[in-house]
Amino acid sequence: MSKLPNNSITSTNLGLSYETHSEAVYASRLLNFDNLPEPKNSDDYYERNYNIISTEISESLQIDIS
Questions:
Q1: Strand (E) positions, the chain?
Q2: Would you say residue 8 has pLDDT above 80?
Q3: By the 8 A CB rule, do 7 and 20 touch?
Q4: How far is Cα 7 from Cα 26, in angstroms, rounded to an integer?
Protein backbone atom coordinates (compact mmCIF):
# COMPACT_ATOMS: atom_id res chain seq x y z
CA MET A 1 0.00 0.00 0.00
CA SER A 2 1.49 3.35 -1.03
CA LYS A 3 1.50 6.35 1.29
CA LEU A 4 -0.34 9.50 0.35
CA PRO A 5 1.69 12.72 0.21
CA ASN A 6 1.33 15.10 3.15
CA ASN A 7 -0.61 17.64 1.07
CA SER A 8 -3.41 15.16 0.33
CA ILE A 9 -6.39 14.63 2.62
CA THR A 10 -8.87 11.83 1.97
CA SER A 11 -12.17 11.09 3.63
CA THR A 12 -13.50 7.55 3.36
CA ASN A 13 -16.57 8.22 5.52
CA LEU A 14 -18.47 9.80 2.62
CA GLY A 15 -16.51 8.34 -0.26
CA LEU A 16 -15.06 11.78 -1.08
CA SER A 17 -11.43 12.66 -1.58
CA TYR A 18 -9.77 16.05 -1.37
CA GLU A 19 -6.38 17.32 -2.45
CA THR A 20 -5.01 20.43 -0.81
CA HIS A 21 -2.22 22.72 -1.90
CA SER A 22 0.50 23.56 0.60
CA GLU A 23 0.44 27.31 -0.26
CA ALA A 24 -3.34 27.74 -0.38
CA VAL A 25 -5.45 29.25 2.39
CA TYR A 26 -8.72 27.42 3.03
CA ALA A 27 -11.58 28.97 4.98
CA SER A 28 -15.11 27.89 5.78
CA ARG A 29 -18.06 29.46 7.53
CA LEU A 30 -21.45 28.40 8.77
CA LEU A 31 -24.39 29.32 6.57
CA ASN A 32 -27.24 31.16 8.23
CA PHE A 33 -30.69 30.37 6.81
CA ASP A 34 -32.72 32.12 9.54
CA ASN A 35 -33.90 35.00 7.30
CA LEU A 36 -35.38 32.94 4.46
CA PRO A 37 -39.06 33.44 3.62
CA GLU A 38 -41.51 30.57 3.91
CA PRO A 39 -41.58 28.42 0.74
CA LYS A 40 -44.61 28.89 -1.48
CA ASN A 41 -45.68 26.99 -4.58
CA SER A 42 -47.72 28.81 -7.15
CA ASP A 43 -51.39 28.93 -6.24
CA ASP A 44 -52.52 26.73 -9.13
CA TYR A 45 -49.57 24.29 -9.20
CA TYR A 46 -51.58 21.28 -7.99
CA GLU A 47 -54.56 22.13 -10.18
CA ARG A 48 -52.38 22.23 -13.31
CA ASN A 49 -50.27 19.15 -12.48
CA TYR A 50 -52.64 16.89 -10.57
CA ASN A 51 -53.05 14.25 -13.31
CA ILE A 52 -49.61 14.42 -14.95
CA ILE A 53 -48.09 11.50 -13.05
CA SER A 54 -51.08 9.17 -13.23
CA THR A 55 -51.58 9.88 -16.95
CA GLU A 56 -47.97 9.16 -17.87
CA ILE A 57 -47.86 5.96 -15.82
CA SER A 58 -51.15 4.57 -17.12
CA GLU A 59 -50.11 5.19 -20.74
CA SER A 60 -46.74 3.52 -20.25
CA LEU A 61 -48.31 0.36 -18.75
CA GLN A 62 -50.50 -0.52 -21.73
CA ILE A 63 -49.49 -3.98 -22.97
CA ASP A 64 -50.86 -5.79 -26.01
CA ILE A 65 -50.48 -9.56 -25.47
CA SER A 66 -52.48 -10.75 -28.49
A1: 8-11, 16-19
A2: no
A3: yes
A4: 13
- AA identity, residue 62: Q
Q: Are 49 and 41 in contact (CB under 8 A)?
A: no
How far, in Å, CA of 1 to CA of 18, rounded?
19
Confidence band for 19, pLDDT divided at 50, 70 and 90: confident
3-state secondary structure of 55: helix
Q: Give the Cα-Cα-Cα angle 18, 20, 21 (nearest 5 degrees).
A: 160
Q: What is the pLDDT of residues 22-56, one digit of tens each?
A: 898 888 888 888 888 887 776 777 677 666 655 55
Give CA–CA dist 58/25, Å, rounded: 55
